[in-house]
Design brief:
single chain, 330 residues, alpha+beta, Jelly Rolls, Arc Repressor Mutant, subunit A, 2 domains, eight-stranded antiparallel sheet, five-stranded antiparallel sheet, 12 helices, 13 strands, transcription regulation, Homeodomain-like_sf, HTH-type transcriptional activator RhaS, HTH_AraC, DNA-binding
Length: 330
Amino acid sequence: MAPASSCHATSMAFDAPFVGNTHQIRTVEAFDADEHAHNLTDWEQSYDQITRGRFHGTLAELQLPQMQVFRECTSQAVRQSCCVWPDAFWFGLPEQSDQTRINGRLAGAHAIMVRPGDCEFELVTPPDYAIYGIVIRRNALLQAAELSGSRIDWAQLACAEVIHVDNNSRTSLLQTLAGLLQNDGGCTDPDLRQQVLLNTLLALLDTSAVDGAVSSSFQRRQRIVAKARDLVLAHHDQAITVPKLCEQLFVSRRTLQYCFEDVLGMSPMQYLRLIRLNGARRHLRQASAKSLTVQDVAADWGFWHFSQFSSDYRKLFGQSPSQSMLTKTH
């Protein structure tokens, strides 16, 4: 896995966005974090549940001629690996929380997150979370800015993760998004809807300020965390310990602890267990089709003490491993 902030050297295999688009609001719910990740149209995503309890996610999505608009809600804290289609910009507006991390950085209460398409990024979101998202084709945004006379530093925007905006403009954009995602009998013309949203977004970007670039020391901490995740996933049948990670990454235990706390807000040990438990859950949800047992899957993810695995699994996901095998979601 590449560091979460890196752009792909080659384009990912996305379907053509918006095929068969009816410009109607689509709503869907899920009771598994990774299933929820795949409900968002034309994104490449993977979610790991972090906090304990049954997961519930809802999504309201609207596809316009050159844009995708959505509101996503998640009941549990989640680590998200995300990537949208090429030649686009994503803008993320959390409703209230100031605890969102994008590529390890706290976004802040009144900021807006932004990433270009075909560029993997990581979010860590808290429990009971709601976020509005806008994905717009790059050319459509450029043309609209030119017509309106907006002055936007596109090179800087393409490299940004967090932009600071006027709070009144941010509130106005949130209200516009909420209105678009309500079936209240209002305007249904897709082109007019898109123009209203474009005007509101450009007014906000015209007065925004991009947060400064991250320091080289923080980038190093990001790389260490990404390498640790790669090692765990590459050897998921082994219970890799923190001392083993330190040895493989050539860092001290104190440095590793600091990197994880600074980038993810959790300890290395907690993160390693979460990654393996979430990996086992994905595997279990496919296990019945492959004639695997719960014990097979547990061993494949380095859990040799089955009773402890079962207990930890139930605490995190709110159901037993065997119940996950019986869950049919697709």
